[in-house]
Amino acid sequence: MFFSGSAFAGPWEDIAAANARGDYTTELHLLKPLAAKGNAKAQYVLGVRYFKGQGVAQDFAEAIRWFRLAAEQQYMQAQYNLGVIYAQGQGIPQDYTAAIKMFRLAADQGYTPAQYNLGVMYEQGQGVPKDNTDAATWYRRAATQGDVNAQANLGSMYESGDGVAKDFSEAVRLYRLAIAKGNAKAQSGLGLMVAQGEGVPQDYLEAVRLFRLAAEQGYPRAQFNLGVSYAKGQGVARDYVRAHMWFTLGAAAGDADAANNRDIVVELLTADERTRAQKMTAECQQRKFKGCD
Fold it and tell me: 76 lies in a domain?
């Protein structure tokens, strides 16, 4: 979940100018009278400043007070930010039910991040019973407005048939939309579909290319899939040392399948190969997964 920052439009030229030069003292001097008179946008921006400690000492309680005042006036960014605060328990006890309420208020006004977060909470069963059908509904609304994470998550649901009828063509379409914005989950998901020939012609070379793009972003499932490609020699020459490296990297990020396969592949390596694999893994981590092959 992401916290929504401030945005300026309309007659607030002096406030916008102060913000642009990082002069929060002047900005706050201009904002506070507006907020005190009930201006929802000013209340919201004050909430952001107190939350982030910009121009004032960080004060979650004061941030929440201003967000609530703006949210009561249906200011959707304030409603969304309150949802994030409740979901994460920042300055107040964690309360998924309250988070759902705030996200829904903002989502019903068409606020894309709130629609995406509702999808996540329905998919994970946070504050509501787990419901993939409702999750897909909210992801679809956000995806239609261009939310890249919603596109990737909805693509995954169409690939697996969770919450929607399985539809490989729709999964591919959504993954490609997200891939155009560099989304690692979509790169990995489409890579697997390409490797298996689901909805697209089977193409191991293209699958490896997609796995590598996601693996270089640190996406553990793609690191696992790249390890599988090396272990099987699909799209690349079979190389158990590189397979071990990618399995180890995926395992370090928490992928259980990567850990299991690492323990299998290590038995196929000589002592020298194990040493080389460990060295390659350490170097790859230092390079933040870039250029590891």
Answer: yes
